[in-house]
């Protein structure tokens, strides 16, 4: 890349990562207040979304909220769709209060395939009942109008060869509330405990997910184009146990690549769509941002890297893009 990429970096002191979409014209008059059930962590994440039918909503994550799945109520996590002006008039807005509604977006649950369901419940029911799968921890609305909404479940358990890949992670992608598709990483041990979907970004049919805990915290980034999830960045996806591989794994452990991701034409609209992924803990917590092409090769090396300069600053903890 020629010009220094135009990335706005914000180091946030909060643990929760709140990401903003396109703004509504929010005025202090006509204030609305919504809350979720006690203990649901309603408001952990928030996004402003204008869907493909041009309906505007505030999407609110509640990663400990209940959902019913397979006829059982679990704290799987939930996403609420809030319409602040539903059933209100301009007068109501002037006087403040009243009107508006939030409801849980349905169908953001594991697939209801009988074998999957039976196995998941027999192996994993205790965990689901006590810890859920953190659905709605990460919410991102694609930029622009008439766009996709991503609601991710970084602790989603994937069934793989008679066992579960715990905390495999995945995201649901919505065009509108009735059109929901699951985007899951490929069957690969690299995704075990990866928390894929901890970060997500989308543009022009690409859905980029970060899995910062993959491979002992080396982390990884994967791009899914129209439902096909391609190669990913880590070099250690196989069960390779030779000494050299093990020492490389140790060297990158706890770098957390994919902690935050963005997808944009950095530096101008004529530049290629490029992935930015941060590794905030790399090099003694100095942190760095790596840029990857959207069409990744296996074990893709970054096109460009921006390094944090001071020890301990966690450069790249949060990323925003134009
Ligand atoms: C979830 O449902 C259970 C059982 O119905 C209830 O005890 C719990 O309070 C609910 N939790 C939330 C966060 O709504
Ligand atoms: C799951 O499938 C069963 C049988 O196909 C059906 O009875 C049940 O209502 C479904 N549950 C959900 C949550 O969709
Ligand atoms: C779901 O649970 C309710 C209440 O426990 C029960 O009456 C109903 O028969 C169950 N439905 C199915 C499909 O298992």
From TrEMBL:
Q: Which GO terms describe its cellular component?
A: external side of plasma membrane; integrin complex
FG-GAP repeat coordinates? 29-91
Q: GO terms for molecular function, please?
A: integrin binding
UniProtKB keywords:
Signal
Signal peptide positions (record)? 1-23
Q: Which InterPro entries match?
A: Int_alpha_beta-p, Integrin_alpha_N
Task: Enumerate the Gene3D superfamilies for this protein.
Answer: Integrin alpha, N-terminal (2.130.10.130)
Q: Which SUPFAM superfamilies match?
A: Integrin alpha N-terminal domain
In Swiss-Prot or TrEMBL terms, this protein is called Uncharacterized protein
Q: Which organism is it from?
A: Scylla paramamosain
């Amino acid at each position: 890349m020629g010009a220094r990429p135009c990335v706005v970096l914000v180091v946030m002191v909060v643990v929760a990562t709140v990401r903003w979409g396109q703004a509504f014209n929010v005025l202090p008059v006509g204030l609305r207040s919504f809350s979720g059930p006690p203990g649901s962590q309603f408001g952990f994440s928030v996004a402003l979304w204008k869907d493909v039918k041009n309906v505007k909503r505030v999407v609110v994550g509640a990663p400990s909220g209940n959902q019913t799945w397979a006829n059982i109520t679990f704290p799987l996590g939930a996403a609420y769709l809030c319409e602040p002006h539903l059933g209100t008039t301009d007068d109501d807005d002037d006087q403040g209060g009243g009107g508006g509604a939030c409801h849980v977006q349905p169908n953001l649950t594991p697939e209801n395939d009988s074998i999957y369901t039976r196995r998941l419940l027999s192996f994993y029911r205790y965990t689901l009942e006590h810890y859920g799968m953190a659905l709605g921890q990460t919410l991102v609305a694609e930029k622009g109008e008439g766009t996709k909404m991503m609601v991710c479940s970084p602790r989603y358990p994937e069934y793989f060869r008679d066992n579960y890949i715990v905390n495999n992670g995945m995201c649901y992608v919505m065009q509108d509330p009735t059109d929901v598709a699951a985007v899951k990483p490929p069957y690969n041990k690299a995704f075990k405990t990866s928390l894929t979907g901890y970060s997500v970004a989308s543009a022009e049919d690409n859905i980029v997910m970060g899995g910062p805990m993959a491979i002992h915290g080396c982390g990884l980034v994967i791009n899914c184009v129209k439902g096909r999830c391609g190669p990913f960045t880590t070099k250690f996806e196989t069960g390779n146990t030779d000494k050299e591989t093990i020492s490389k794994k140790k060297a990158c452990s706890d770098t957390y690549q994919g902690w935050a991701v963005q997808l944009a034409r950095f530096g101008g609209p004529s530049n290629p769509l490029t992935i930015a992924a941060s590794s905030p803990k790399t090099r003694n917590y100095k942190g760095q941002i790596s840029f990857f092409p959207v069409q990744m090769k296996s074990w893709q090396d970054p096109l460009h890297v921006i390094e944090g300069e001071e020890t301990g600053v966690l450069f790249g903890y949060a990323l925003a893009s134009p």
